[in-house]
Amino acid sequence: MAINYHSSARLTERCRCYIWQGRGNNCNTLLLPAVLRGGLPHVLIDPGSIRNELGEPCFDSLTAVMERDGFRLQDVGLVIGTHCHPDHIEATGPVVEGNGALFAMSAGEDDFYRSTAPMFFQALGVRPPELDVSFYLGEGDLQLGAGDNRTTVRVLLTPGHSPGSVSLYLQEDRVLITGDVVFAGSVGRTDFPGGSPTQLRQSIDKLSGLDAEYLVAGHSTGVGGIIAGRDNVRRNFAAVKMFI
Ligand SMILES: [Zn+2]
Fold this sequence. Notes:
The chain is α/β, with parallel strands linked by helices. It has a single domain (6-240), classed as 4-Layer Sandwich (Metallo-beta-lactamase, Chain A). It is 25% helix and 29% strand. It has helices spanning 58-68, 86-89, 92-99, 107-115, 117-123, 197-208, 230-240, and strands at residues 6-12, 15-20, 29-32, 42-45, 76-80, 102-106, 135-137, 140-144, 151-157, 166-170, 175-177, 182-183, 186-187, 214-221, 224-228. Strands 1-2-3-4-5-6-7 form a 7-stranded mixed β-sheet. The longest helix is centred in the last third of the chain and has 12 residues, at 197-208. Zinc ion is lined by residues 83, 85, 88, 161-162, 180.
């Protein structure tokens, strides 16, 4: 019996958050249920670690909590990585191998992954997963689904924490998914390989111009992982701009 380390929150009709609650490190995961046409309708964003530094079963927990909500990993047709750090994309391997789901991240992040990330993963004691990028995410809109299920995912290139980091803005629901660029009351580290404080600042400026009702960060801080309410999102941007 897997212990459940994720809490599940249904933010909007089109967006569910799986917020990491363990003691060790792992990212928050998002699910866009039933937005793709065909037999594999779900989109999963940042599936996270398989097992973290404390041995907590991150991937088993995600699988169990999603199943409790009625969603099977076998029905995921597309995995999106905000960036290639292992605590965001290590579990891409088992999802993609399970059913041939597609995997997307930015071209810049794929270059970084191929050149630098294996050393970075090994330094963290994680075996780099075999990542075969099905298509690249570039700046602009990704149209998913059709009819009432139509979902527009605006992709924003937001380097600084990692050179090819992307943030995602769900246009219809005004949900902003920031990966490790900005958190509740904090910003992403820039001391990892490929990090840049100048780029992070520019990326945060770019995101702060969006009209977001929710901000979902790649990791939770003491004040949580989801910021709800347009004014709270704005206040958070104003506060974190003072740190960088
Ligand atoms: Zn990261």
